[in-house]
Design goal:
Layout (H helix, E strand, L loop, with lengths): L5 E2 L5 E2 L17 E5 L5 E4 L1 H7 L3 H4 L15 H10 L3 E9 L5 E11 L7 E8 H48 L6 H22 L8 E3 L1 H15 L5 E5 L7 E3 L1 H19 L4 E14 L2 E13 L27 H11 L3 E7 L2 E9 L3
Parallel strand pairs: 9-11
Antiparallel strand pairs: 1-2, 3-4, 3-7, 5-6, 6-7, 8-10, 11-12, 12-14, 13-14
Helix pairs in contact: 4-5, 6-7, 7-8
Length: 366
């Protein structure tokens, strides 16, 4: 069976060869592309479709679509209509549920490929609406972090200058005081100025220059796990769910360790030593971060079963000095986010009572 050239929604024309395998270049698309035969069996799919349907191409090829998607999905009648009537159609914001129970919202484009009804093919393009919304939120977060960074630099400069003057004046005053007992007050001034200076440095976050080297993310997470378990004296349960296929990638291992340590300490504060923390790693393919598309992205998740983050706090969670913990400084998550940003990534959060997850996303280009 052969099919004519197919015009894709993004103006890219793909020539489908006789064996119906999808052109290599379609794997670069963010849109999921699936080729179905007249019986709605999968004849081909690209990498984005594999990720969306949560199945590998080797397993999916030849399978009926209903093995991968719940039959209750409302667009099944549209597939049959497009095939029988040889009519292209587009439907927006269609709910889609995979066999694993994952719920997504997609825009669906159906393009029948010319032929007899019994041998007709159907090209299905799936664009994840919720993913596009997430990309928009990520870009906004990225821009907000960049703006905040510049503001903090200006504030730090304006604060450090008078702090230096106050410290110097206190030192001079200390040398001029005839009564040694009064030096106690100048010592307080000096120590408080030093404390403010340190606080400003911490608010600015990590150093600008990365010392990148091949880094294994699991060496980072294991080091952090050992540190936290030592701090908790064995009372805290930390589970691991690692993807062993993750390759090494260029990163500043020291800074990544600090970021992960901040996330895990935050989780421990939330759930307490009687709680459960899960460290999970996965690889994401053809993933967009900060407006740039990356072939491979490392996704490190830190889950805890604590009470969750208050909803009104979520939009401000990565700002300096914002914390839901009365004993916290509000700098740990801000610093972790800035470290992720310096690596070209970011940290996302979702939270509900009993299930809070921070996901650090770092590109793995080498």
């Amino acid at each position: 069976m052969s099919c004519a050239p197919v015009q894709i929604d993004n103006s890219m024309t793909a020539e489908l060869p006789p064996d119906l395998s999808i052109d290599y270049h379609l794997d670069l698309l963010a849109t999921g592309v699936v080729l179905l035969d007249a019986d709605l069996h999968i004849r081909a799919l690209n990498l984005s479709a594999e990720n969306l349907l949560e199945v590998s191409a080797s397993r999916a090829l030849g399978s009926p679509l209903e093995e991968l998607l719940e039959e209750s999905n409302e667009w099944y009648p549209l597939l049959n209509q497009a095939l029988t009537e040889n009519y292209s159609m587009v439907r927006r914001a269609i709910p889609l549920t995979t066999r694993t129970g994952q719920e997504r919202t997609v825009d669906v484009t159906l393009s029948p490929i010319a032929g007899k009804v019994e041998s007709r093919c159907l090209l299905v393009e799936l664009t994840m609406v919720d993913r596009l919304q997430a990309i928009s939120r990520d870009e906004s977060e990225w821009q907000a972090q960049a703006t905040l960074k510049e503001i903090m630099k200006g504030v730090a400069h304006e604060v450090k200058n008078p702090l230096g003057g106050i410290r110097g004046a206190a030192q001079l005053l200390s040398g001029e005081l005839a009564n040694p007992n009064l030096q106690e007050y100048t010592d307080i001034i000096i120590s408080e100025v030093d404390r403010l200076h340190t606080l400003v440095d911490r608010m600015l976050g990590p150093r600008e220059r990365l010392e990148s080297e091949p880094t294994n993310i699991h060496e980072v997470t294991e080091h952090v796990r050992q540190l936290i378990e030592a701090e908790a004296k064995g009372e805290l349960a930390i589970e691991r769910d690692y993807d062993p296929s993750l390759p090494d990638f260029l990163a500043d291992a020291g800074q990544l360790t600090q970021a992960v340590l901040n996330l895990v300490r935050n989780a421990r504060q939330a759930c307490g030593d009687a709680g459960l923390i899960t460290l999970r790693t996965r690889v994401l393919r053809q993933f967009t971060l900060g407006g740039s598309r990356h072939k491979l992205v490392c996704a490190l998740q830190v889950n805890d079963d604590g009470p969750g983050v208050p909803e009104d706090l979520l939009p401000r969670l990565f700002l300096p000095m914002v914390t839901g913990n009365a004993k916290g400084t509000g700098l740990g998550l801000s610093i972790a986010q800035r470290i992720a940003n310096q690596h070209g990534g970011l940290i996302q959060v979702r939270s509900s009572p009993g299930d809070t997850c921070f996901t650090m996303l770092i590109p793995m280009e080498t």
